[in-house]
Amino acid sequence: MKAFILLALFAVAYAAPIEDDKIVGGYECRKNSVPYQVSLNSGYHFCGGSLISSSWVVSAAHCYKSRVQLRLGEHNIAVNEGTEQFISSAKVIRHPRYSSYNLDNDIMLIKLSKPATLNSYVRTVSLPSSCCQGDSGGPVVCNGQLQGVVSWGYGCAQRNKPGVYAKVCNYNSWIRSTMSSN
């Protein structure tokens, strides 16, 4: 009986998600379960983004750098797993009404220098008809559609302090027209 109880405890411990203190209330996701997540790099990871077509990434405008390397198909940015694609930016386009003062319209598009190869590690997320530093530009996805882009917040998970996101559906026209004209 003791052996059965120990075996059951090990099974539960093994099956439980790995907690991650870098994500507020978060846990490590299943490997390759978020294939649209992109890491923005400039010698180091500085923001996240979402692949919305084979040639375009959406992120937060406050993450702007004129040149950026995009890392796709990664699960752990500290480990080279052989599934990654490293692609440079061709263009980085902030929303024309972005304000660095109050972070209004905190959204930008990044055109890849070459299309990403879509596979089981790298896929797009559809546009629709509490955050911490380092989460900026990352996706808020519901029912397989990109609903928000992490913008800003007060510290990390502070009680009664909001996390703020750019609502992607408000920018669909700008996203589509920018993609088609570039």
From TrEMBL:
Among InterPro entries, the record links this protein to: Peptidase_S1_PA, Peptidase_S1_PA_chymotrypsin, Peptidase_S1A, Serine_Proteases_S1, Trypsin_dom, TRYPSIN_HIS
Show the GO cellular component annotation of the record.
extracellular space
Signal peptide positions are 1-15
Q: Which PROSITE patterns match?
A: TRYPSIN_DOM, TRYPSIN_HIS
Record's subcellular location: Secreted
Tell me the GO molecular function terms: serine-type endopeptidase activity
Reaction catalysed?
A: Preferential cleavage: Arg-|-Xaa, Lys-|-Xaa
Which example biological process does GO assign this protein? proteolysis
Broadest EC class?
A: hydrolase
Q: What is its main location?
A: secreted
Domain of life where this protein originates: Eukaryota
Record keywords, A-Z: Disulfide bond, Hydrolase, Protease, Secreted, Serine protease, Signal
The Peptidase S1 domain sits at: 23-180
CDD domains with a match to the protein in the record: Tryp_SPc (cd00190)
Which Enzyme Commission number(s) are on file for it? 3.4.21.4
Question: Under which name does UniProt file this protein?
Answer: trypsin
